[in-house]
Amino acid sequence: MRLDKFLKVSRIMKRRTVAKAACNGDNILVNGKISKPSTEVKEGDKLEIHFAKSVLKIKIVDLRSTIKKEEALGMYEIIEES
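Now predict its structure.
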């Protein structure tokens, strides 16, 4: 699954265009490497997302193309939040 789609489906980011902008701004690392919106992610990958004043580190647990809002938190587990 594409990184920008995962961020949108998992509800980490509200819109896919916002996810694309974050990826193009070098704000998201996949397994320690700067990534593009088209980067393919798989279960077990670790993401580091840099927001304005915080950093969110997560591990991808499940990949689905569609999911209910209540179940979206099950797609990843939070490793660290600062």
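Strands lie at 28-30, 33-34, 46-50, 55-60, 76-81.
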